[in-house]
Amino acid sequence: MSEITAGAPGPLDDALDRYLAHLRVERALQPATLESYARDLREYLDWLAARGVPALAPVTQIQVLEHVASLQQRGLSRASQARHLAAVRGLHRFASAEGLAPIDPTEGVEASRGSRPLPDFLGVEEVDRLLAQPDAATPQGVRDRAMLELLYASGLRVSELVALPLAAVDPRLGIVRVRGKGGKERIVPVGQRAQAALETYLRGARTALLRSRQNRDLFVTHRGRRMTRQGFWKLLGRYAAAAGLRDVHPHTLRHSFATHLLERGADLRAVQAMLGHADIATTQIYTHVDRERLKVVLSKHPRA
Fold first, then answer.
1. Taking residues 250-269, what's their average pLDDT?
2. Is 286 a catalytic residue?
3. CA triple 170-172-174, angle to 5 deg
4. Catalytically annotated residue among 84, 254, 255, 260
5. What's the confidence (pLDDT) of residue 63?
6. Mean pLDDT of 147-169
7. Which of 157, 206, 255, 260 is catalytic?
8. Is residue 251 annotated as part of the catalytic site, yes or no?
9. What pLDDT digit, counting tens, does each position of 220-257 carry?
10. Which of 96, 133, 258, 278 could join 104 via S-S bond, C-beta 3.0 to 4.6 A?
11. Reduced to 3 states, what is the DSSP secondary structure of residue 144?
């Protein structure tokens, strides 16, 4: 990650490199998460350097508060502010524990409070329209249908989806073994429609895409390489537009998966396990979605 740093390295850069190495080795964070941390922390350290702060040791709580205020002035969302502050807090805690600074100046500092936004999700009919878009007459279309069906049927993160190895799918048991955040493995059941789409893809489309090349990844491109997150984003955007849907992203299908399960009486703990949430409070946001939809329905009652 050190290539992100510009100019001659100093104490701030050294602290950042050590912390990112700690996150990568000790915490086993995914590359995309590491990049997010690196981006936010690089911005924070540049902000400190511009104010003549040469290292983490002399940083005060007032300066941390000023930085948080600068994020608010830039119009960052509450979620972005909270993510940014979490990265800054982690860096200072690490610096304090490693003896790079005498105290942790972020203690007691909070991001601006506010209600957590409800996740976007699609209705069942909208999901059906989206999943019907790939052209089943082409290997790419068969692959794309399998990816979309699996994403909706399992609630995977897109990073988990594209990282699936071929061996992760067990068609006999109807499950997928997923390696999620922190390298934790979970087993997710897959519905019949997704199973059928996967079987069709594995039966011929995957081989047609590889054209005798070897690859251990489940989802591959016509170049014989693993499908990337960016590549999936592009094809999802194309299919969403063709289905007449706007603002659809990979997490939309994850949100739809969880919301539709809870609407149909699924146990919250079971949904938590399938999503790979460490804290059930994260999963509970979908119960709020269900309640909001119920309010809309009740508002149409003649006595509402």
1. 81
2. yes
3. 65
4. 254
5. 87
6. 91
7. 157
8. yes
9. 999 999 999 999 999 999 999 999 998 888 888 888 88
10. 96
11. helix
